[in-house]
Design goal:
Strand order of the largest sheet: 1-2
Order of helices and strands: EEHHH
Largest sheet: 2 strands, antiparallel
Shape: elongated
Strand content: 15-25%
Mean pLDDT: 77
Helix content: 40-55%
Number of helices: 3
Structural class: alpha+beta
Radius of gyration: 27 Å
Distance between the termini: 68 Å
Length: 106
């Protein structure tokens, strides 16, 4: 199969608006599978507008930048791992634990 293009019909003429996938590329292969399955591989204009908007202003619905969001994720991960670290440290004898905190069989 060849390239995939977006085109409009103007009277008897067809005008190519945009090349969506060049023949022989992975993108063209994905487009071919979608078209053969009866699917439209293009995203709706509203989705494309939202993606363009997100690229221009890297702040999401949460009102934080990507860097701030990454930092918040790291903080949450560290907080969630804290109990596991405590159990590890008690098991290794690095810290003294309460009697009921960790029961190891001899």
């Amino acid at each position: 199969m060849g390239s995939f293009v977006s085109a409009t019909r103007e009277g008897d003429a067809v005008r190519v608006v945009e090349c969506l996938a060049v023949a022989g590329t992975a993108r063209a292969a994905v487009f071919e599978i979608a078209v053969k399955s009866g699917l439209d591989p293009r995203f709706p204009p509203a989705v494309m507008r939202e993606v363009s908007s997100a690229r221009e202003e890297p702040r999401g619905d949460l009102g934080v930048s990507q860097a701030e969001l990454f930092h918040l994720c790291l903080q949450a991960l560290a907080r969630d791992l804290q109990p596991a670290r405590r159990v590890r440290d008690v098991a290794l004898g690095l810290v003294q634990g309460a009697q009921d905190e960790l029961a190891l069989e001899p």
